[in-house]
Amino acid sequence: MGRYVARRLLQMIPVFIGSTFLIFMMMYVLPGDPVRALMGEQAFDPTLVEKMRHDLGLDQPWWWQYGHYLAGLFQGDFGTEIASKREISEIIAAAFPVTIRLTLFAFTFTAVVGIGLGIIAGLRPDSVQDRGLLTLTLILISMPSFVLGYLLQYFFAFQLQMVTPTVQDSENFGDLLLPAVVLGSLSLAYVARLTRTSMVENLRADYMRTAVAKGLPRRRIVGVHLMRNSLIPVVTFLGTDIGNLMTGAIVTEGIFNVQGVGNAIFEALTRREGATVVGIASLIVIVYLFTSLIVDLLYAVLDPRIRYA
Amino acid sequence: MRGARSAKWVAGAIVVALAATACGGGSDDKGDSSKKGALAGYVSIDVGEPQKPLVPADTNESNGGYVIRALFTQLLDFDEKGEIVYTNAESVTTKDSKTWTVKLKEGWKFHNGEPVTAQSYVDAWNWYANSKNNQQNAFWFSDIVGYEDVHPDKGEPKSDKMSGLKVVDDTTFTIELKDQVPYFNYKLGYTTFAPLPKVFYDDPKAFGQKPIGNGPYQFEKWTHKKLIQVKAWDGYKGPNKAQNKGIQFKHYATPEAAYQDVVSGNLDIIKQVGPTDLPKYKQDLGDGALDQPYAAIQTLVPAFYSKTFKGVDPKVLQGLSMAIDRDTITKTVLNNTRMPATSFTPPQVKGNQQLDTDIFKYDPAKAKKLIKEGGGVPGNKIWIQYNTDGGHKEWVTAVCESIRNATGVDCVGDPKPDFATDLEARDNNEVKSMYRGGWVADYPININFLKELYHSKAESNNGRFSDKEIDKLMEKGDNASSLEEAVKAYQEVEKKLVDKMPSIPLWYYRINGGHGKNVDNVTINYQGDIQLHKVTVK
């Protein structure tokens, strides 16, 4: 187990370098120069653009720029933004905690409510609860997140006046409730459906019949035997979903004015702040890698046949 | 057994992860959260994160401009009609349009108590113009004698002082220009000409995060991508003294989010309502709705190097202009956010005139005839280049539809994913046939809209329009002995442009903003910016 984890951690290094390279090259081949974009539509001085490009090393070939970036990265230096002259580590430090809070909130909501609903429906297939769940999740899946976002905003902020329409303070969990619900609702639908389906399937499995025949109490049959096997696909989904929740929140962040990673990376992209994009995207890659490792380890917990050496 | 042991591992990992995020989370001021960030007597507005550190000569975009204008005061400013109002200067005078004498008002101070003297101005301008300091607006000083010494095209500057700037005494200095510029005093209204206190030179980088100016407001705090807060400064002596206790510039990711906050009373002012809320904002905000034209214009600029328009007969362009139904498009697609153009300059600038022409009128029959007379459009097809991140797609489609229906010339949009790509194509002469151009007044004179865009050597003349006759007429205006004569000469230039068609003017901009019930006296200046110092809190 320990060796397995160590191996996985070591594998992350080449993946990390590879992904920074890919993202760096994508930024490099994008048309549009960050220094020129700074000048906007009004008059400007072209010699100044040339000089700034030279000072920033933007007139060098791509391998020089990438090497320069990597060298900085290994010394813990993410670089500096061209326009704002802020350290990129500072930008990351401002955006990530907000996003992580929002993600954890949305994730908890997805997992608890999604699995809960799935169990309720899955234990009684084709009952009223089951049909109700299928309808509800169908609505959630087919509704774009901005529709749901504006609907909830209208209902809770303007009709009921329970919350402010946008997030005033990103450290206040009450403020983050609405965006988290909106963000988590699509995954919630998938989780509920996954849980339901795999429970319905496993209910008919042989080992379930054996457990019932042994005369085990129902709580133990459902709680230990049924749940453990049914949750494997759900855990896989939830694991990859953490990454999606973190990066896929641009629309939701926009509606509720949350200054998280989605917005930071989008703004950096339109301004061609290459270093910011590469820095944030690489960190998200790391988050993906870690969650997939945790998911793999969780398999062993859920299914004793799976072992890592 | 195996399973239980790995469970401990996983649980441990999760605990560590949670702890790590909790540590990162519980940071700065908890105290604000109970009051939801609102401060009594302060005005809040949706002005986002400035692109750059707050240095006057390095700021040319709207967000930073708002903050700079609150913190700094230049020599003079303009009223709603575009007339000069002296702020820090007592007077700016000249006899020959070449040597200008500036007299400062006495007793002015920076926020840290340092007196504002002629030296504060001269030192600041020398620093801004110096090519070592990479200031974006450095070229604004290029009229001054000695600019080449501090800002050579190549290599290191020879000097750190422009010889054209001379301090006479504490409150007087003179500016010597290379050539006559009869409207130079109007240029001085731009925020780039603001003075700097001595502490700036110790650490310009730190200053950019925490500026000290001489303006109506004093810097309080800047939480990046969230909030910039300034408070009214008691010691301010200018005519534009703050009528409120301070301003909160709040960052919003989308105009829609800001709009929701104005409607619900969490934000006082929104400077531009987003397209989705435009149809209903007057109903929602009532008396708080703002709808006013300002000095900016949108044009279609033909690329005179492109296959379509190389050596084009101006009649073709006049024809295309007459094929655009400006009235209908501004009313429907643009929701009255623009006003149909009737000349090359907006009405708010000095020298704007009624042009004796019908090229701005929608007339399909005449449009067809003119295009035919001019020899038609090569390939019978034009492209309009625009950036998709600026909300231009809708009107470009409508304009194309209008041209196609009226003249039979095929017209399609040429979308670029964002503004940066759009600009790059313009700079590199890669525009297929026309691009969407826009210009906001730097100073309220027609010269700004004509010389900067259509002089053959102008940097922003990306259509590469070049006409000796026009250049000559402009030269006449630049050599005029008084402002009135210069404006008149440029009026002649504009009349001539009708026959040359360096661009197809489409419409003038309007601002469509609004404010909530907590504030009053929200007005707009000629550049479309909200005059925050005048806003009162109820």
From TrEMBL, chain A:
PROSITE patterns: ABC_TM1
Keywords for this protein: Cell membrane, Membrane, Transmembrane, Transmembrane helix, Transport
Subcellular location: Cell membrane
Membrane topology reported for the UniProt record: Multi-pass membrane protein
Mitochondrion keyword on record: no
Gene3D superfamilies xrefs: MetI-like (1.10.3720.10)
Location of the ABC transmembrane type-1 domain: 96-299
Listed transmembrane segments: 12-30, 102-121, 133-156, 176-194, 277-302
Family recorded in the similarity comment: Belongs to the binding-protein-dependent transport system permease family.
Protein name stated in the entry: ABC transporter permease
Native organism: Streptomyces thermogriseus
